[in-house]
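The protein record filed here.
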Amino acid sequence: MQYARRNLALYLTNRLNSFVVAPAILILVAILTVVIGLIIGIRTGLPLPQPVQDGFQANLAVFWALPGFLISHGALTANRGFAGALAFGSTRRNFWAGTAMGFVITSLVVAAVGLVILAAEAATGFGLGISFLTIHALGDGNPLIVAVTLFLLSLMSLFAGMSFGGIYRAAGVIWTVISIVAVVLVALGLLAAIVAWPDLWLDLASELGRWGIPLGLVVVTLIAGLASRAVVRYAEI
């Protein structure tokens, strides 16, 4: 554990990417959501009419905003930190463990900032009647669901990035591209299945209730974490 903490300290030296950028993205997307509400309000009046407010309940911007940066951050961490850690005597196992602890800290920061945004939104509706985190997919703003979802979404993205970075270290560019294409194809396959059998998925969602998305993220996060551990084991300096 002592050697894993040294790798954690190495991860935390990059304070900007570890603590600032992802929360800043979350805040920026919240601001953009407010701006969009204001633009719509020019036509409809403020606060927004109920049909428009209902439309914002399907706003999934938070799910698209975070993964891009966090995947790239996880990949860069696997590439930039790996060689230095091993050069100073770390094992692959300790590098992964220390970096994983860093990923948990980053994800907790994102979740904490999300709860602050949620508190402001729930108290005021930003004065417009819009929804950013008080959406159906997040239990209509249930604080526990919001926190768990943001935490898992962030952790999953970081582990996914570390997996791609580890594949690059272990097998090179071609296999990295192949792995990315494979993940995209799986995602498109799931989307096609949802479109093809909507009733099946709606029934499943109703059975799982508000915890459906967090439970799905648990599964994907575990897969991404195990994948990152496996590829780092074979990564080369």
In short: The mean pLDDT is 87. DSSP finds nine helices and no strands in the chain. The longest helix spans residues 92-124. The CA atoms of residues 23 and 63 lie 13 Å apart.
